[in-house]
Design a protein that fits this description.
This protein is an alpha+beta fold and 675 residues long.
Length: 675
Amino acid sequence: MNSLSLKRLALLAFGFTLSFIVLTPSISGQNRDWKPVSPEELQMTKPKIEAGADAEALLWDVYVTDEDSGGDLQSVLHHYLRIKIFNDRGREAFSKIDIPFGQVSGMFNVRIQNIAARTTKPDGTVVELKGSDVFERDIVKGDGVKLKAKSFAVPGIEAGAVIEYRWKEVRGGVSLYQRLQFAREIPVHRVQYHIKPYPHPELGMNGMPFNSRNSPFVKEKNDFYLTSLNNVPSFKEEPRMPPEYSVRPWLLLYYTKEGKPDENKFWKDYGREQYNSHKGQMKVTNEVKQATAEAVGAETDPEKKIEKIFHYVKSKVKNIFDDSLNLSEDALKKIKENKNPGDTLKRGQGTGHDINMLFASMITAAGMDARNVNLPRRSDIFFPKWFTDDYFMRTENVAVKVGDTWKFYDPASRYIPFGMLAWFEEGQSALISDSKEPTWQKTPLSPPALSMEKRTGKFKLLADGTLEGTATMEFTGHLGAYHKENNDDDTPQQREETLKDLVRYHIYGTTEISDISIENVNDPFKPFTYTYKVKIPGYAAVTGKRIFLQPNVFERNAKPVFEQAERKHDVYFEFPYSEKDDVTIELPPGFQLESPDAPPDVADANGIGRNQIKIRLSQDQRTLKYDREFSFGNGDQLVFTKATYPILKRLFEAYNTANTHALTLRQAETSASGK
């Protein structure tokens, strides 16, 4: 659950009061005329920043301010981009522009307005975009996140042209914290932000750069302040790279009253504040005592008592923000606030914070010590503890003292199993609250065996190379949570389409899939499970009297994880994981396996990853048995420097070679007497 400090609450309250009496001048009419394109820009033939770039942004100019809109404050950014197109690849890449809106990055509700664009051709001819040519569409980012976008085709674009476009971005809410990007998918000659601070009498605006050295703020006219960055390389996402905000250059705008406080003092004070503000919210009511007695029963072992309480809370209380409930904003507004854990129990629903406090109060009622614990998300950024502000402390969980050890629990996340946290909360520095001495402790990473993809198949191979049979895929731990979250708010038809796409991508594009069963989509405890029948024409290659068979059906279409020759960023795995394959294939009559040879085990010297395969035949030589066990992330190793990328790449290529290992079947010779 997101936490909000007292300082931030005070600023919010101040902002909404002030919004009725202060009108920040709009800049919507500012710089509406296009700036002239110079002959030098039209004559450019080569990129300046990155050799081989297909296009470069000559200028990215942004005005940032807060505006009053009928009593509500909103953050407004006016963007202007000028881009030089060098070749046909650049023309193709920028022939269509997408500007995302809606819930972008999960941080702001973004609206896009006032889109305009034009192209200046090499001969100076100008072609402008018609307003009617802007439309909305759905787009999918590389990580599978679905977004809505305002889109348009750039008019008259060609190699050598300069294109320009501008738009107004409206972010709901005042600029308490703003993330301003410096890098784009192409190199940028100059990025400049003109920022108008919020007129607060006590809190001043600060700008904290991350992964960049932008210029100091310089005061401009109309109370704007300018900061800029020149010659910014392109930012391109790579498979399994570190969190985006740990590697790309950006600036955090925020407001604070103090100067830079001492790091240790800041976090100690913060931990004490959290303890004091949460202590009363863990109140043990009579309802809590009764529920604890019901949940625990006669159990005396501390960890088993915790587990019983954990399962009780998960079974009895729903998180009102769980998307599978499909509650509208109006419905959420009508839900009464829980004032204590007893209310949460009685109503059987609450926020994630309510559920955490109920769990903590029941732990207290059971005679154990429970504390609120705050921690950042490594899906967002590798936590900069030196940044003395609570902005990155984005989640809260519950720590319970077991003997001399603090253990961490996440009862509010519906699909996170007992003893695990959400993957982005594991391996993190967590601050355990206390009235005197708050302490930092690193949350443990769950071992690979707890996040497993278990695949079982019973198949029959026909003489023409067709494979048919039944398959089951079972997901646990972080993998199970991912598939449940991905499916729980979809229709049954959408869930089946998701499975079909998954099977055809990993096994074979022509796979025919039927008799689909999808189990435990909404179950917080059982594994997410697919069961289905397949028929795959042309699965095995038939040449003359031989059939070439890949026994690991689930890896039939597998490709190496890392295909790039070089790497720009370090490699980052989100969590340790494992796979287990159990496949049986009935061989076609009249064919014999030449040799049930299995590929050798593949493992690195440090035991971080291991791939083991066993292949054998049944006693009657008619059934092939294939077993595979794989694990990665042993020893809590998840980050690999780009210097070690060649070694890691070869390791995963060796995994792929082993997993796609093929066997040869030979047609048995018939004797003369058997004619």
